[in-house]
Amino acid sequence: MLVHKKTLLCKTRNLPYSIIDATACPTTCVSFGVLELTSLRLPAIWLGKLSLIALRLAGRGATSFPGKIALKVYPQLLARLGQRLERCVVVTGTNGKTTTSSLLAGILGTDEPMIHNREGANLPQGLTTALLQHTSWFGRLRRQTALFEIDEATLPLVTARLPVKVLVVTNVFRDQLDRYGELDTTVSKLLEGITQTEAVIVVNGDDPLARHVGLHSGRRVSYYGLSPRHATMGHHNQMRDGAFCLECGQELTYDAFFYGQLGVYRCENCGFERTEPDFEGAWHGNALVVKEGRLPSVEYRLPTRGLYNIYNTLAAISAARISGIDASGIARGLATYEAPLGRMQGFATNPPATLNLIKNPTGCDTVVQAILSEPGRKVVCLAINDLAADGKDVSWLWDADFERLAASPDVLACVTTGLRAEDMALRMKYAGYKTPQIVMSPELSNGLELAFEKAGELGEDVNLYVLSTYTALYDTANWLEKKVTAGAKTPTYRTSVS
Ligand SMILES: [Zn+2]
After folding, report:
1. Within 13 Å, how many C-alpha atoms sit on residue 238's CB side?
2. What are 20-64's pLDDT values in tens digits?
3. Where are the domains of the chain?
4. How far is the CA of 274 from the centre of ligand 1 (A)?
5. Which candidate among 20, 86, 407, 413 keeps its CA 20 to 30 Å from the CA of 191?
6. SS3 string of the chain?
7. Would the annotation count 364 as a binding residue?
8. Inter-residue contact 247 to 212 (CB < 8 Å)
9. Where is pLDDT greater, at 494 or 329?
10. How far apart are CA 273 and CA 386, in angstroms?
11. How remote is the CA of residue 338 from the centroid of ligand 1, in Å?
């Protein structure tokens, strides 16, 4: 019954549909038999757009649903709409995707409106929804530029269908194990996704794992990295998953580190090593100086704080340069940046609260580092869920460096909440907190209320820092928003860490 799928060729790419659409649903082929699939393109768009309107009338934002229903009717829709994009940029990697793509959105969107999948919707359904929002009833895509943030694991599903021109790999760290498996799987997903495109790859060359991806991509690669003068051999208790050479398995030798496994590395066994970056960043104070080959260095104002954000900004600038944007366009774009949800997002509550997303050990360590670098006494609240989107395996909490919180005289107490509040409380006990310093309440709003009470008890100058996994993030942000003191203005500019 499905024989025609093997022979039916996509008209634009001359490849079988079964290759172009990795998830091309057999049910569509079964239900529509040998129907010429292109005739269903407009009905699919109409269905998608009608469900977008219905969701809007129901007061709900765009979800993946309109894209899902449209793809059911016409599985090639994402590829067909995507073909019309002149500039399609993808940002992938373990940490820093959201901040990097927000920064890049500001830059690419300065001169012309563009399509951008904000957080969450990075499967084909979500991307199709994003495109449908900018498609006319006659099927015409109204935008020429799109920027998509894509998880490493879903990259191959997406790149086969979109004409990606520039693809950024921010870094490769260990993420939720049950979602992505081990690092090798992540690296092979990235390579699989990249080899399906003709894109220029923009890679963090300070990360040996990302460098390995660049080396084996078979595509034109531009590396970005920091000036070695910012690397140190100082205190390092952070994760270094990638500290082994992926080429030969030998442990890498480091001259110095930036953070995690990022540094100036080489393999004594096979000669694999960090390369001179095409875009080299150095900073002083609030300025990031970017050196691009033999061109004169350009100084940009950093829109965020923290070392990981210097990387994110450098990634965005490199991708923008590869996309043909000049320095003044980049500077204008960076000035429009606002921190996305849960990235050192401040709330004018009493006491003031700061919300951060945590999802893996390295990201969590950078959040801890950012919290410790802020002045004043603190209470930390950890909201930990283990639903599918968080990763069901919470053992990574044991790899994150919570000991640094416990060792700081400024972090006075911690409150744990969410579905895994008990595991988190146990983790904090092992990190070094005494039992009276740990408060636990699995129910989220109660846990947050207790965190405010605890901070209030400890003194007027105590600030609250909330660390939350993905599925608790939106509820926590809403709860904090309601708690904002009447008339107070929530700061929109804060450090961003992911
Ligand atoms: Zn090696």
Report:
1. 24
2. 443 343 333 333 334 445 579 999 999 999 998 888 888 776 678
3. 3-78, 84-129+140-334, 345-483
4. 12
5. 86
6. CCHHHHHCECCCCCCEHHHHCCCCCHHHHHHHCCCCHHHHHHHHHHHHHHHHHHHHHCCCCCCCHHHHHHHHHCCCHHHHHHCCCCEEEEEECCCCHHHHHHHHHHHHCCCCCCEECCCCCCCHHHHHHHHHCCECCCCCECCCEEEEECCCCCHHHHHCCCCCCEEEECCCCCCCHHHHCCHHHHHHHHHHHHHCCCCEEEEECCCHHHHHHHHHCCCCEEEEEECHHHCECCCCCCCCCCCECCCCCCECEEEEEEECCEEEEECCCCCCECCCCCEEEEEECCEEEEEECCCCCEEEECCCCCHHHHHHHHHHHHHHHHCCCCHHHHHHHHCCCCCCCCCCEEECCCCCEEEEECCCHHHHHHHHHHHHHCCCCEEEEEECCCCCCCCCCCHHHHCCCCHHHHHCCCEEEEEEECCCHHHHHHHHHHHCCCHHHEEEECCHHHHHHHHHHHHHHHCCCCEEEEEECHHHHHHHHHHHHHHCCCCCCCCCCCCCCC
7. no
8. yes
9. 329
10. 38
11. 41
Q: Is residue 245 a known part of a binding site? A: yes
Q: Which residues surround ligand 1, an ion (CB under 5 A)?
A: 245, 247-248, 250, 267, 269-270, 272
Residue 88 annotated as binding site: no
Distance (Å) from CA 433 to ligand 1 centroid? 41
186/212 Cα distance (integer angstroms): 12
Q: Where on the phi/psi map is residue 123: left (φ > 0), alpha (ψ -120 to 50), or beta? A: beta
Sign of CA dihedral 479, 484, 485, 487: negative
For the annotated catalytic residues, the residue numbers are: 393
- Of 52-61, 72-81, 86-95, give the lowest mean pLDDT range: 52-61
In this model, does residue 4 exceed pLDDT 70? no
264 Cα to the center of ligand 1, angstroms: 14
Torsion sign (Cα): 256, 258, 259, 260: negative
Task: Please list the residues that pair with 336 across neighbouring strands.
Answer: none
Query: 252 C-alpha vs ligand 1 centroid, how far in Å?
Result: 7
Instruction: Note the pLDDT tens digit of each residue in 250-304.
Output: 999 999 888 888 999 999 999 999 999 999 999 988 899 999 999 999 999 988 8
C-alpha closest to that of 217 among 258, 188, 183: 188
Q: How far is the CA of 261 from the centre of ligand 1 (A)?
A: 15
CATH number for the domain formed by residue range(s) 345-483: 3.90.190.20
- What separation in Å is there between the alpha carbon of 248 and the centre of ligand 1? 4
CA of 215 to the centre of ligand 1 (A): 13
pLDDT class of 207 with cuts at 50, 70, 90: very high
Question: Which residues in 9-35 are b (16+ Cβ under 10 Å) and which e?
Answer: ebeeeeeebbebbeebeeebbeeeeee
